[in-house]
Every structure is written in C-alpha cells, then in structure tokens.
User: What shape does this take?
Amino acid sequence: MIAHPLRFGSASLVGLGLAGVLWFAFSGPFPLTEFCTRNRPTWVFGLFDTPRYTAVTGPVFLAAMASLTGLYLAALWLVPRAGGKLVSGVLLVGVPLLFVAVLAPGYPLLSNDIFKYVFDGRIMAVYGENPFLRVPAEYPEDRFYDLVYWKAVVNAHGPIWRVLEAASAQVGGEQCVNAILAMKVWPAAAYLATTGGLFLTLRAICPDRAVVGTLAYAWCPLVLLEALQNGHNDVVAALPVLLAMVAARSSRWRLAAVLVAIGFLVKPLAAVAGPVLLVAAWRAGMPARREIVVGGALAALLVVAAYAPFYVGVSTFQGLERASIFSASPAELVVIGLEGAGWPHDRAMAVARFLAVGSFLVLSLAALWGAWRRQLTPTGAVAVVLLGYLLVGSQWFNPWYLLWLVPLALAVPNRELRIVAVTFALLAPLTYLLQYDARLVVPIVFAPVAVLAVRYRASLGWSPSGRLALPGIVRTPSVAGHG
Assistant: This one.
C-alpha cells in the first residue's frame, strides 16, 4: 500500500501540470521541425518590449516561470517524505522521462550554444580539423554557418566534450533537427543519470529526504529548461563531480580524483572540486593522503592523454581566455559604475576583475577551512565554492551555470545551503527577461541570494564562529538540527 496516497496522487498531477506548462509555453509553440533553421538575436523579449517576430514575449515568459515555480514549490510540499518503488518510479523516473519527451523536440529558446556544439563537432567529424584551433568563421559554406552566433570563438570545453560533439555531429548529419536532437542526447542522459545518482546518494545518507531531495533537482524549472530544452553541457560536466563526491564519502579518494578529472575534461570549472578533495583527504589521515596523491597522479595522466591528440602548444587553451568578457554579473555592475565615474574602460575592467577574483578566492579559502574543520562535508564545500564563484567570481553569468550547484547542494545535510541554491535556481531565469542587464539582474537575481548567503554564512563555512554538526562530531546546540 502506498504511504500518503493523496499526497502521491497530488504530486503526480502537479508533475503533469509542470509538463503541460513547459509544453504550452516553450516546446509546443517552437518545435524544432519548424524553427531549427531560424536564427534570431533573442527569443525572450523584455517585459514591455513589442515583439518583432515570433518569440516568447515578456509577459508570457514571466507568467510561465511564475507558474512553473508555483507548481515546483507545491510539488516539494506535496511529495511524500517516504515512498516505495511505485512512488519513486513514478515521480523520479516516469515524470522526468515525460519532461524529456516534452522538451527534447523543442527549439533551444534561451541560448544558441547547442548550435555551436554542433558546428564544433562538425569541425572534427566532417572537416577533420582541430576544434581547439578552428572556429566556424573559417567554414562559411557550411550548412550550419548562419545558425551559429559565436562564429569566431573557441569554446572553453575539454577533449571529452569535443569527442561527444563530434559523435553527435556525425550521427546528426546535415539535417538541422537530427543534429540538434543528437546533441541533446548527452544533456538528457546526464540529467537522468544525475537524478538517479542523487536519489541513491540521499537514500544512503538521508532516506527520509531521498524522494523530495531528488525531486527538488529533477523537477526544477531551471534544470529542465537548461538541460533538456537548451541542451547545455554543464549538466554533463557536473555529473562526474557529483559522483566524485559520492566516492569521497566512502573514502575512495583515488576514484574521486579521476572523476573530477573527467568532469574537467568536459568543462574546466570542475577543477574547483580538486582543492576540496585534497583538503578533505589530508584531513582524513595518512592512508587517505596516499590515495589522493595516487588519484591526483592518475587524474593528471588522464588529462595529458586526453589533450595529447589535440595539443599544438599554448594556443590549444585559447578557449579559456575570457578576461575581457563581462555580462549580467556583479563584476559588470562594477565596470558600469566605474565607467560612469569617469574611469577608462580597461582600468575599470581590471579593477572589476581583481575584485571578482579576490572575493572568490577569499570565499573559497573560507570554504576550504570549513572543510578542514569538518564544518562542511566535501560535497558541501564544493557546493559553497561554486556558490561563491557564481555570486562574485564569475565575470560572465548565465543561468545554466546553476546546473553545477543545484545537485551538489541538494546532496548535503545542510538545509541552509539547499535553500540558497534553490532560491538562486528559481530567480536565475529572470536574467533572460531582464535582457542580461547587470543593473537589473544584480539587484533582482543576485541580491536576494547574497542576503540569504550572508544570513547563513556560518552554515556555509564563511564565518569562523560557525559550527555545523556532522556525523561523528559533537553537535552544538545552536545548529543541532542541521546535521
């Protein structure tokens, strides 16, 4: 017999409601079969902009996101805190598969990146050239040339992703719809695998939160739109990092280091997990230290071997250069403010870059110190480092960067960190409606998250007085409920 059948049935209906809103607002009106070859500068208008072509208007986008957010929060309240195979199967397998079926055929409304993935894959699979050196601008006769926005840019992706791009480009061929669907396979598979991995993790460490915690990821509107409709590879890179944290929890430090390297070879941001693993293993004692050293050596060999076929000197890493790009971030707001005060553009960027990097390093060191004191679990420390990067360290913010933070934050016992991450994920899509204007994005999206982070700074490891109760550590009365 199903525990809490009314809650289970209601949550299932809410899942159908989420799928319905996604279909009627995003996927149904913009099928790949019709829009795949139509490239426009933006597909979401500002709240008061007049549409100039077929796109999502500001009021429709806002209403859709408000509906999705309301349904999502209702699902978190309704879902049974414990359930058998039927509950887990329907809510965490059946409904996510429905989301994939609804969003996969939809045009990637909120970003043009997946077309760049396809073209970079074609550079390797069709033209036999090095995608770390060549850019779409060099192939103006290509079938997909007009569909790519960043024609002269080398993406900051690793060799594993390049191979996946090439495989999808080879399978997708010359047809736009087939090419996009083939590329969406990887994010969709990673989304489903992350859902499964998160459920197994939570069932092992916190069984009463396994269903609701996993649903908080699998039904999150931002995760669904960015992973399944827009097809961003961040969800692919974040998966091995989550698995690395699972390995670290069971003291498999060697495997954890290799998994972080795999994430790095998809997208370099995974490297932020490396220092946390090193600190946690060193804190665990001599056997763990030997394991992490061996794991680090294996990870280094893996990275060298993966880059070797593409390596042509320093220019191989040109895609990592983003120092002059500022967009929708606190750092851009600093640039705008300094320029308004009469500072030269280059000097304003240099100061903003220094403040962003410096603030991120300070917050990261605080998180590492929290991991050393065992105030934070390794998973929690990596999540906090990522939160610091997104809040202050990233000069160029995009909503899909939250695909890194959300699963890690939901896998920790720290309730405050989960609240901050979910709040960020619910607010981040407003960046599209605000047209990436830092003067609006920072106060509306970033400020509420920053206020929460400051309020919970002790639990995030950003306060020397913080004491978070973890297994095997004496609880302190003030935060005893958060272990």
About this structure: The chain has 20 helices and no strands. The radius of gyration is 22 Å.
